[in-house]
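subagent[fold] <- orchestrator: predict structure for attached chain, return tokens only, no commentary.
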Amino acid sequence: MSTKRKSHKDVDFEVSSGESSRHFKNAKEALAAAAETAVGRGSSVLDVVVHSASGARWLYGEHGVEMYREDPDASVFERVEFRANNVGRVP
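subagent[fold] -> orchestrator:
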């Protein structure tokens, strides 16, 4: 992801687990929330929603634009699933 700006007007991040969902404009905040949610609930999903070729370019450069143009109407540009297995104390 681009280091020029922390967010882009055409890129959204949704973190969900079960029926709970939170919206973010910043990727680092969304990643932290997805990891925290997975640790607390066992799993979470991070959906990256891109609304324009400009947003795709900000996210992944020209490769992102190619991905976006393959299916500009996709509801989710990219989905990342997080799973955590709390095994308790390790002696």
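orchestrator: received. Logging for downstream: The chain has a mean pLDDT of 93. The chain has one domain: 12-82.
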